[in-house]
Amino acid sequence: MKKDFNQTIYALSSAVGKSGVAVVRVSGSDALKSVELMTDIKNPKPRHTYFTTLKDSVSCETLDKSLVIFFENPNSFTGEDIVEFHIHGSKAVINNVINSLSNIENYSLAEPGEFTKRAFYNNKMDLTEVDALADLIESETKAQADIALRQLEGNLKDLYEAWRKETLSMLAYIEAFIDFPEEELPENIISNFLERIEALKLEISSHLKDNNIGERLRDGFRVVVIGPPNSGKSSLLNKIVKRDAAIVSEIEGTTRDSIDVHLDIDGYPIIFTDTAGIRDTEELIEVEGIKRAINLANSADIVLCLFDASKENENIFDDIKIENRKKIIFIGNKKDLLTNKQCSLNYGSNTNLISIKNNHGIDELLKLISKRIQTFFDTKSSNIITRARYRENLKEALENLDRFDFNKDIELSAEDLRMTARYIGKITGKIEVEELLDKIFGDFCIGK
Question: Which of 17, 254, 306, 441 is the most buried (most CB within 10 A)?
């Protein structure tokens, strides 16, 4: 899939803003021209670091003291010649270096994701690795980074490519018989084919039965807290995030809409949602807030049913229609108002008693949430579906495999296999779709 790029590109590849060190990257066939025009270095050795004075490409005015590293093609990130200038990270120095590069013939400022796009076209990575790189850059928790790193190592690419090659192998055999229509397929060949088809179908369908864990890990697991007014929902949210994220008041119905806060619990990304207090009311805005609370609970990964343990027990939630009762954690607040006897008699083993006021049981609750999330998936798995488009293409591939049948025209059976390979290839980029590529690389920042 190698593609010729006429322009040599450059951009700031480190974070924008003041810093001790900034990195400006140059990639392309004329990358070494920047070293020739802006330094006194002659014939730099690949992967050697040089400390030198950096000067303007036109005026020769001193710009900075810089470290310069040359990466020779194809042993570079993009597969092209790359030069990196490690300079002081002031706005003035960065702007001067960028302006100097802009004056070099055949140089242009990189577009968002253009370095990574060149790496893809030069077969340095496939689209699953491109997506993993984007996920790694955007990761906010350890679990997100771990999954991205494992995907960046190529485990998912290897799995999908093995499936594609297996499909193409079977397709080649079928097409050979199409070329010689007078030959009949032997029974043992048919039997072997059907076994291979069923084995591939089983692998893909098992891969798809992951409860969308990869997408949930990227976006965050949603934990929704519901309960009657003044049970402590907003106070619990504030206690967990250690700031006043929600308004706390003795007035019932203060929270009328959901409030989302993003958290990191034991490395897992969590979207913690406070909701309107559930009660009988005729106030229209509050009714809508309660309706939204129930809808959020039904779509959540974990539901915290919180109640005032000094007045109620978990039975108050019996009439609330939550589609999956297994995702509920019952929490009785205001344990500080109960005697030990009341705690043991009034509440079963399914209820977790806490005191938000005294900060009692909060850490234990967070550990319980973490354990619940761990039951969703095993982060040690290298082959987690992390993109909706992977899932969509795998489903299409599986549907084509399901249609494969020796009882119909062999040309149609061949087309089923051809389409299976095509849909799998669309995941890794073996089948090129320009519109898809523009969307993927356009989501990167400039300089990556």
Answer: 306
